[in-house]
Amino acid sequence: MPRSTTPYDGEFSQYFAARVHSLRSTAYLLCGDWHRAEDITQAALLRLYLAWPRLSRRDALDAYARRVVVRTFLAENRRLWRWRERLVGEHVETAVPPATAERDHEQRMLLRSALAAVPPRQRAVLVLRYWDDLSVEETAAALRCSPGTVKSQTARGLATLRQRLGPYLDALSLAGEERR
Q1: Per CATH, which fold does 1-84 belong to?
Q2: pLDDT tens digit string along 73-111?
Q3: pTM of this prediction?
């Protein structure tokens, strides 16, 4: 039996092909696991597909899709919070590798580990603000909260990152300046 198509399928397929990687990257930064990021992205894109005929503002699709990804992540965390392991303990010990590529990889892993220690809502704010480069107002719209909430969640999330990174913070700052 052939699959029925809607007049919107081609348009959605083009949007999907153009944005799936960006949405998956955002989901990965939120959850820290590529498999889970794939699941979050698929669930978000399914919701977007189902809402597609009702979406009148095609110019705001990216903001809407990003909001669906973040809300899917937050909803999943609310459901699974009992069963997830909490990161406890000291900072991750890493040796300084000789090669720049290896050092960059370790720094990214260290940052991802520290980001995973940030509570989900604060992590969502940090990812939207610093990875997706959204303004305070755009982040507030994506999360359906006030700009003041975005500012306070940003401050708390950054404080958690600084605390988690501890002695590695200076090394990360210096490495970023070396690349400029």
Answers
A1: Rna Polymerase Sigma Factor; Chain: A (1.10.1740)
A2: 988 877 655 444 444 444 444 444 445 566 666 777 778
A3: 0.65
